[in-house]
Design brief:
alpha/beta, Spore Coat Polysaccharide Biosynthesis Protein SpsA, Chain A, 11 helices, 8 strands, 19% strand, globular
Length: 227
């Protein structure tokens, strides 16, 4: 099983090097690293080039970047990873055993937030529980999917926010996800920057608004208020 790890980046020069360094054992084992830059104004591309198999450019937006990465990738399994997220050791074995042993076609990991605040333990617990019960994955959890299935559903919807939720809903119609108990470690910077409770409330509001068909472009302006 060859896996392609697709990482969308935008102005992540201070982080992307560490993320890619952590993935070098997978690269040495024959898996592929694809970085998709959405128009960074910093050195994200330069920092990525020595550590990835492909560094490509794309229009800005995670859904567009991940779709461009899918086109360029060569793997049978596609794993979409945020630039501030680290896979657990043996991730490729967990995915292989889970997907082949349990005949699953897509899935995600549990998530651990990097910060120390006690409230973050509650946030990550609820994130993982909600995902397990609903069958909906978020990008923070490292979504992985068989290429054939992703192509069949048309890839990530071309929307400015909630692309992970929208994709999960399409994939869930085929099969419920493989929910791995092992955890990816992801940055808690957005919670710490905006305030933990404020960020939780914002995410609940955005999900509710998306459920009621509010345009994702409008929601993106709330989530990314400075563009």
């Amino acid at each position: 099983m060859k896996m392609s790890i697709i990482i969308p980046v935008l102005n992540e020069a201070t982080l992307i090097g560490d993320t890619l360094l952590s993935l070098q054992p997978l690269r040495a084992a024959g898996h592929e690293l694809v970085v998709v830059d959405g128009g960074s104004a910093d050195a994200s591309v330069v920092a990525s080039q020595p550590l990835a198999d492909q560094v490509i450019r794309s229009p800005r937006g995670r859904s567009r970047q991940m779709n461009e990465g899918t086109k360029a990738a060569k793997g049978e399994i596609l794993l979409f990873l945020h630039a501030d997220t680290f896979l657990p050791n043996g991730a490729e074995r967990m995915i292989d055993q889970g997907m082949n042993g349990k005949k699953k076609v897509w899935g995600r990991f549990d998530v651990k937030l990097a910060g120390k605040h006690p409230l973050l333990r509650i946030v990550e617990l609820l994130m993982n529980l909600r995902s397990r019960l609903s069958g909906i994955a978020t990008g923070d959890q490292g979504i992985f999917v068989r290429r054939e299935l992703l192509e069949r559903v048309g890839g990530f919807p071309d929307i400015d926010l909630m692309e992970d939720i929208a994709l999960s809903k399409m994939l869930k119609k085929v099969d419920r996800p493989l929910c791995l108990w092992q955890r990816v470690l992801t940055s808690s910077r957005r919670w710490e920057k905006r305030g933990i409770l404020r960020t939780v409330l914002l995410m609940w509001f955005l999900r509710l608004a998306y459920f009621y068909k509010v345009n994702p472009g409008r929601l993106a302006r709330l989530y990314y208020p400075w563009g």
